[in-house]
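Render this sequence as a predicted structure.
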Amino acid sequence: MDHFARGQAHVNYEERTDFAALRRKRVAKAQAERDAVQLDALLVWKDENVRYLTDLRPQLIAGKTTALNGALLVADKSPILFCSGGERDRVDRTMPWIAEAHTIPIIEERALIEGFVRDILAPVLREHGLARARVGMDEANTALVQFIARYLPDVMIDDGDTPMQRARRIKLPEEIALLEEATALADAVTASGVAAVAEGMRECDVAGEAMRTLFRLGGEYAHVMTPFVASGEHMAPPHRISSDKLIRYGDIVFIDIGAAWNGYFGDVARTTICGKPSRQQQEIFTAVHDALRAGIDKMRPGCTNRDAAQAIIETANKYNLGNRFLSLFIVHGIGIGANEPPYIGETLPGAPVFEFQPGMAFAVEPLIWVEGVRGGGGVRLEEMVLVTDGEPHVMSRAPFEEKLLL
């Protein structure tokens, strides 16, 4: 398998991603997981799950995740799409693999939700023999659940997100190729942000230059809805937005924007410096850099997420900074979801221990911050990592700021 980004376009001189084959394989994985937990159907609403099953690239509206589009997966059938009226005409004309589609309202206003369940969802379920079924659902408006109970009293709603997570956990070869392309794009976005750093620029200016590169190169979305550029004291503690703060000489500047391409995310982040760093800034940066490398080295079969987290923290402890991590997981899974299970370094109750398997993909992002450092004492570095049969493969290639390394 290639471990580089070949290019974004379909071309006639070499074989690249076969999207029709990828759709079939993803649906087959979801069907297998549905069958494994004895669900008669999966009804999904999360943007990434709908895309995984149907390849719908919709218009996304802030705050409306799980409210715009859905998909129903039934045994031995291709996915059925429930889509916004704004998508329907395009779906009918450009997505021939969708054999059945239904126009739905935004799943938000109670009266419209009732109409959807009564006049659209209930007839579809009955037509496909699901009037007395176990249906797995990922996330849903409470009113949707209530009206399903009213109009489909013999339908039992169960957990449908876990089987979708399991289907998505190990990436297919085609998905890995798309992750490589998304990561190459994220590297370019990061480079544009770093190049824009200068005295007198604002955090939002840097974000703007990076976002221009994202869209100029055909990217779909940033990794996060709120592009993260924080400078100076805004990194201790981290302000996870891009504000109007001016960047000044001696400021640490952190850039975390990433990119999505064909539905898959590349999450790359770098910390740079405006001017000359202080010794303390170098110590923090080097601690994060070495901890990042130590954690990645453990991301291979035979090791667990606990081993990787321990390596990261123990390495930071060599710099007396092991207790200065951001109170968040250190690593998250990534794929068609910008941030998805499994996690590394999660300390909240219920965090599972798992062994690394080939085909898992992660964004490794240790963040250490120390308050009271002139110009900022917060550093995060983030790499895209694929677990293989042997050594972990680092997909990202953005350089590290050499001035900040001891």
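Summary. The chain has two domains: 19-168, 170-404. The first strand starts at residue 41 and ends at 44.
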